[in-house]
Fold each of these.
Amino acid sequence: MIYCGIDWAEKHHDVALIDDTGQLLAKRRITDDAAGYRLLLDLLAEYGDTQDTPIPIAIETGRGLLVAVLRSGKGQVFAINPMAAARYRDRHGVSRKKSDPGDALVLANILRTDMPMHRPLPADTDLARAIAVLARAQQDATWNRQQIANQLRSLLREYYPAALDAIATWTNGLCRPEARELLKLAPTPAQAVRLTRVQLRSTLKRAGRSRGIEAEANRLREVFRGEYASQPRLVEEALGKQALALLRQLEAACLAADELTEAVEESFLQHPDAEVIVSFPGLGVQLGARVLAEVGDDRERFADARGLKAYAGSAPVTRASGKKHHVGRRMVKNDRLNHAGYLWAFSALRSSPGADAHYRRRRERGDWHAAAQRHLFNRMIGQLYHCLQKGELFDELVAFPTKTAAAA
């Protein structure tokens, strides 16, 4: 048996091949381009890598062109956490020396000694991997949009409280097109005071509003003409220019989030698992795509539902030593799936009577809100695992049976 370890870097990669006794068979440094990838594949083929007997490969990343080339065949690619690789490094020497060829050798030895303890990259379909790219990008764009909106809001509090009062009743606040159009038209309080009803109506129409324009224009005019403290004129103008700069970033972030939202919806609805996922209460297209992105469609990725629950961070972890015994929440998990699970469980409370009853029972037993939400997510993701394996849709009576149904 031969094992391969690859120490990944930006410009080059170090490769090490060892046999089942730990003997170094070959080491090579390849460039991060097509020529380097061909050299790596030729090296693996020279030592017996075929479609029927592929050489397992360990690398410290699960993405990038190099990983895509390695996954093109039937070989198993193991993405080893760099922190875990650092712990293994201490097994081969106590001097704490470090080098790229040495790290490649350490990765190869990880597979030689502990390959059953590590998971290969899942064999997801290309469509599932594409959905994962889009769903994660949409989630990042949403977080980035909110971060910029928070920066703009903090800036407006310093010199322009009327703008915050004007948008206080609008959902999504500064991320709404009406709010952005108003700030572009009047980035300072002095300019907002001079706005007429005609200008305000035109601004609301330009932002896409079609109802209640006259009443909203009158409300905005009264708010802008209210009594507020103000900065000196030069300082106010400078702050207005800073606000316009942030506003341009916010518009770009909003546009990116909207475009990615459309792309996620288009791709997700093409996947055969989409019907099963959106049948669950609390899971729509966007949140369902995030769940699919992290769970994948490789049915053999998780041996059972407990593995998926641990991966999602919903299952508790037990720490026991001697007389000490503690059961707490899991800290090492897939953060994206855990975040989606929290939103999923929260949304399910309104759309599923069984989920709401389960949550309330946990609260009555003494759980805090987050613990009850996590317990509900733990139950529902186990049900999702079952439905995906069997190809069944969510059934409220089966998922949360009543006492009458259970007795029957």
Note: The chain has 19 helices and seven strands.
Amino acid sequence: MPAITEDHVTDSVADALQFISYYHPADFIRAMANAWRTEQSAAARDAMAQILVNSRMAALGRRPICQDTGVVNVTARIGVQAQLDWRRPLQDIVDDAVRRAYRNSDNPLRASVVADPFGRRGNTGDNAPAMLHVEMVAGDKVDFDVSAKGGGSENKTRFAVLNPSASVADWVVETVEKMGAGWCPPGILGIGIGGSVDKAMVMAKQALNEPIDATGLRARGPQTPEEALRLEIIDRVNALGIGAQGLGGQTTVLDVKLRSFPTHAASLPVALVPNCAATRHVHFSLDGGGPARLEAPDLSDWPELDFGDAWKDARRVDLDSLTRDQIASWQPGETLLLSGHLLTGRDAAHRRIEQMLAAGEELPVSFRDRAIYYVGPVDPVGDEIVGPAGPTTSTRMDRYSDMMLERLGVAVMMGKAERGPATVEAIARNKAAYLIAVGGAAYLVSKAIREARVLAFEDLGMEAIHEFTLKDMPVTVAVDARGSSVHESGPRMWRMPA
């Protein structure tokens, strides 16, 4: 039996990370397409259409589906009879693959991992290290699950130790209702039940790599308590009316994946890990015959979509001549096509602005009556102006809302997911607005960016303040100048009776 070498692992994992950066799993494409076909909420249907178009564009262009190209998660299941020709720890071997994949000049991926997490939080520059989990199993092969997990969905992970008599379904539904839209639904929920704290979390994360089969399961009917629980959770979560991007609609989850394990008699640990609309993972097996060969999805899996009809009545907005009176006329849920100049800035830029103001220093950029977009784009390649440039979760910027709106005079904020009550009040008080771009449509959004330049904080890399020149960038009005939020009105409209 030939040995599995370090090069086999490094080549395979590096190829897998490039592969999943631009290919959705085929089962995810089909499930999303089916949800789009049956969705009755116009706003949610448009969001899903953008996700599907973006997915096809990313596959054809071999560029990232999402600007958050994720933290690498690898599960390696090593057969106890496998012949291994390794001289280094598997962590080192996998990390070499991560560095190679994320620094690939043909398709560079965004480095999002920071070292010293409770201190300086300096970016490692290559997205290493990976989050590696190793298991010893029967057999003579080594199986790998490789995924890239974005921060928006990862940050919504939840864990609880329930009373043994408690309802897991009740806890999951209540938890999802409170999670907000920052995890970019529609997506998948991974649930781990039992074991210990760490075992439950690992099971929930690993369950996300299982095939989407909810439609087939429903057609044949559940045969185990676990399958019955999955269907109950799917139905009850979708009945909440949260919908795509939290805009209100019929589909919030495409599937719920569940694993369980024996646990202590006094405990019922439950972990919940959501996967977003940029679900990215692949499985392969190594047997010593060389690196893995990955099969690309068939382009026929994607529906043919055209935004001509969906956007023909959209309001076109010139950001360079925007007035507060124009902003006041926008309605929650309305689609806008933005053109003109836009500033960018997210966590690190906001933090530095705060520090400069506290020190009495002059800012390098004026935000007065400007629009700011919360984004950390991927580096461009070839003739690209900018790489994939989808929105980041806006709630992280809520602590800076008074500073940006009242002190600096920002007129429009853009990102994804809902804003907190204090920020919504500040938006109304300052007659501003909050817009959302579709999370999971980063490559599509980047095509609306015609020019890009760094204005300040270049040392922050992707978190520097850029100025983008736009042509018809699609966004949705999430909070209008009166403080009405589509993330409240949309789900309320589509919620089903209990």
Note: The chain is about 35% helix and 20% strand.
Amino acid sequence: MNKVGKYGVRLLAIVVVLLLCGQLIMISGSRSNRLNHFAAGVQKSNTPTLLISGWGGGTPTYHRLITTYYQQKIAQKVMTIWVLPNGKCLVHGHLDANRPNQLIQLLYVWNYTPTYNPQTKQLTAVLTMLHDRYHVDKLNVIAHSYGGSEWANAVFCSPRLQKEIKYQKVVLLGVPVDESFGTKTRFGLHLLHKSTDHNFKQLLRGASLMQANHNQPEIFNLLGSKEGKNDQTDGSVPHVQSQMMRLVVKKMGSTYHERTYANTTHFQLHQKKAILKEVAADIWDN
């Protein structure tokens, strides 16, 4: 092998090592913490909250949320779950029925796939594990981007998950539920019959099943507007793709809230202090 070839191999090896190190940091997990006292006005709840990141997301997605809620004595992170592509779950920490406002950080070991369908299957395995191993029968969810798409598709399409776990409050941060439409399309009821997104059609069918199973979580759908209130995208997800959740919730018969934040990018939806404060109020009424 000539010198150019050797240098090329070495460079490639260095790049691979750096990428692996970067991924290890992404899935390292935020520090767990315990609260003995809570701030005034924070409602204590025995229902744990699962944090689900989106495509390519990991520890940084909710690190600020976890740290902020701990410092402000709102919630405590008690468990990290790593899920492998084959659905196997690795768990650090544990749930305690006597500790209120517990946070569970879910980390996909690899979530760089072309679609979110593989992560939907992995999330199904995580939710099943939480019920079977830790006896979780009530759950709140905070989900960013494809993490919310995965939650909706996992739960709405699974009679078992609907019957075993009662989903109480679900906060969606820039979550696309129908990718048929782009920024030039404004939401309207007529879009129900124009959708070409197979996953969205599954959600509509699953919404009726959710209603029949009396599993009707309160949905908070938060959207970002990259360049002001009237911008129709957060820079990654067009509003209409998230607003199609209105049709799903209507069929499910749940309580629905939708808020749009001006000058807020897709990334900032899980980083801005004002949004984190409102999300805490949504979950724990503080």
Note: The longest strand covers residues 76-83.
Amino acid sequence: MGEAVVASARPSIRLGLKENWRQFSLLVLINAFVGGMVGIERTVVPLIGAKEFHIESTTLITSFIISFGVIKALANLVSGQLADTWGRKRVLVVGWLLALPVPFMIIGAPHWEWVIAANVLLGASQGFAWSMTVIMKVDLIGPKGRGLAVGLNEFAGYFAVGLTAFLTGYLASRYGLRPIPIYLGIFYAAAGLILSILVVRDTREFVRLEAAGRSTEASSLSFRDVFLLTSIKDRNLFAASQAGLINNLNDGMSWGIFPLFFTGLGLSVERIGILKAVYPIVWGVCQVVTGPLSDRWGRKGLIVLGMWVQAAGLFLTAFTAQFEWWLFASVLLGIGTAMVYPTLIASVSDASEPSWRARSLSVYRFWRDLGYAIGALSAGLIADRFGFAYAILAIAVVTFISGGIVAIAMREHR
């Protein structure tokens, strides 16, 4: 993308999408498999808790999302440091090794605790594998096309989430919640691991190329310095981190609450699968547009508007009781999230120096994916006390407020 930059010491290393399209495309495919591993859970796992294990507490049912979110957030936090010391490829392979047991544990789970344990492994796997596909694409493409790189990465991941959610819902409606719908996860884990070991190349040389000639002062930052900068000290990084947390807070709520909410209002498993598929598919597809659009228009406006569109989708879900309105609300959620998701990662990359960008992205992803746990826990507690609709409404209000914080705190970075 743009003019290729040639390193004097390593002429074969050049930044850009055109120059690195083979590795870039491979990483897009691998991230589709990463997303598919989450997709196997979106429709059927909350229903397994309610129907097979007869769990009545919403908070207990959503506990698998809490374990997933906490562990994924912690894995994100260390993934950037590991990427700089071990190398991107090694961390990616470790992520896939952690994913391999997950579908087998869900298929054979005799107790709900097995599902929670499977999601501990899945969270660690996602934290390592998804983080590396993002970081490696940003490494390859250089500074001119970060929105495009992230948009394509997140498109692949979340399109696969949605498609797998639909397929598992369809299979569950015909063959039951287990084991057949979960077989997809075995294929994803095996394919992702094989490709990562045999075909993927590390990208640290591209980071060295981009950092060449820049000030070395920033490279001396400690992890603590980067954590504080990304979390609170830099206003752009703070705005992005809190928006990422709230974005995944409402996604964690929808993951755990929506299947139970729709089931309680009489919707079939197949139709729930459709609703659970539309949101991430729209989210995934639209990122192909919103990612590069943020390179042209800037980051801030897309993030603010995207958070408010998500809030509108959540309000509509809570206040209506028809499949068609829920379908439209799912489209709104997908569009809003697509406006926010790649743009936030690109904005963090903008505000970070190449020498500590991987660590800054890992801190941002820590806060973002901690939102899964906070969203599932808070929504579960509210739902147990007041009902599903009130839980959805509460998260909608928080999402709207987060967009306002970005509008006030963030400065456009070009």
Note: Residues 15-208+221-409 form a domain with the Growth Hormone; Chain: A; fold (CATH 1.20.1250.20).
